[in-house]
Amino acid sequence: MRLSSLRKPSLISNPARSCVSVSTETADQQRSAVGRVLMVLALVLVFCLGVALAFTNTEHVTVDLLVAEFSGPLIFWMVIELLIVVVIMLAVSALRVARLKRQIKRQSRQIKDQEAELKNLRNLPIHDV
Question: Where are the coiled-coil regions (predicted)?
C-alpha cells in the first residue's frame, strides 16, 4: 500500500478545507434555525393549552391558610402554585450551582498546589543512596 493513499484529512488543500468548513457551518445554521422554529411552535402550543385550561377551569375556589382565606378562580391558584414551584426550584438549583462553584475553586487550588509541589520536586537534585 502506498503512503499517498493514506492521506490524512488535515492534508486537504486550503480551498477544499474551507469548502468543507463552510458546508458544516451552513448545516449548523440550518439546524439552529429549525431548532428555533420548533421552539416557537412548542411555546405557541403550550400557550394555547394554557388558554384552554384557563377557559375550562373558571370556577371559584377558596384557599384557607388558617390565618386568612382567599377566593379566586382555579386557574389563578394553579398559576400561583406554578410560580411558587419555579421560585423554589430556582433557589435549589442556585444553591447547587454555588456548591459546585466552591468545589471547582477548591479543586483548582489543589491542582495549583500540586503543580507547584511537582515543580519543586523536579528541581531537586538527585542524590545517590
Answer: 97-124
